[in-house]
Input
Amino acid sequence: DANTQILVLCDKIEHVIHLKQFLPDFEICYASLDDADFDSYKKHGYLDQELPNMTPSRRAEMCAAFEAGTLRRVIATDIWATGVDFSNLQVLYRVDARESETLDTQAPGRVSRVADGKAYGEVIDCQDTFDPSFRRKSETRRRHYSKLGWEQSGWTRL
Output
């Protein structure tokens, strides 16, 4: 529902920008983007003309708003995969298609924080089957989640 806090984690800024086309009510957060590239994305209609490029202060404001729960929906790069404390985060979409035991623990761990009024935390990870390398990475993430004792559902036996 509208009150559910959702974070979509991507590996690349290009993925963030393209997903924004399908999730217009989400904000985007990233480390940095060259002004020429940023202007090109705006020129080609991938980003709203009024959207300012990311700055350290804007990123810090967004992080504070997300931590406070006033910002509810964000698509972000790894800038928010580690080193943040989003205790109200309920749903994490993991669409980065990578494998890393550290990242496989820390990124989904964003939803494991306890907060008043928070009933659950859910990670939605994409099972990539279209490419052998991506399939292997999906299987590795699944094994890492099992090793942590996390309940998993919806995975198809590959």
About this structure: The chain has a mean pLDDT of 88. Helices lie at 13-20, 35-43, 56-68, 101-109, 132-147. DSSP finds five helices and five strands in the chain.
